[in-house]
# Entry
Amino acid sequence: MSGSHEFGPLEQVLRERRERGQKLLVPYVTGGYADEWLDVVRAVAAAGADAIEVGLPFSDPVMDGPVIQEASVRALERGTTPAGVIAALAGADIGIPIAVMSYVNPIVHLGYRRTALSLAASHIAGAIVPDLPLDEADEWREEAAAAGVDAVQLVAPTTTDDRLARVCEEARGFVYAVGLLGVTGERGAVADSAILLAKRAKLITDTPVLVGVGISTPEQAAEVSAVADGVIVGSALVRRLLEGEGPSGAAAFVQALRQGLDASVD
# Structure
């Protein structure tokens, strides 16, 4: 079983919480979508998140559906930059790990080493780069590891068994299991593909396996986490933010997710 590697700061926390019998909750917030975005990050941390994924706004977010695309547009229109989000997170001091989600273009533009060092300098524990395939990620993974940043890897329902094993072996922080084909967004029910992918990954790795894309409610989070180690919830939270719910609304939603996950293991 893969997963025998030195644990970075993100993976260490997730493993410790999993070993305490906890299901893992990682909410997603788009950095810079509004003035209050850092307050939202603090609020969802206090509401029971185990880590937080912060999206670095980008003009061509190929993995993201309409809701997160809209949040990115708002952020860019406000003059938000990846460097600005990273710098702002340096002083967030929220008490749980932060992982950023970025597309590869801005990282290449800045340079792998400079990006990894800037993340580390801002106490960012992990990074998710969905459009950088494993076969092209050696340099990025090496620079991230050298800087003490966990390079999260993604798998999908179409990932073959051989490739799944390779990705799980190289994953740091957690294995991001993309629950269904298509872009991010809320769904009415958990996709069968999400359950199957989580089962396949859990059979071959001890690295935490979290399912993202299409998880919208506490009930869905609990259903997926019966197999997986936890969930990533993005669009359902970001939609509430775009509708003006703010930090208190975000905290209430994350608290409901937390309660749903906790109830599933009681």
About this structure: The mean pLDDT is 91.
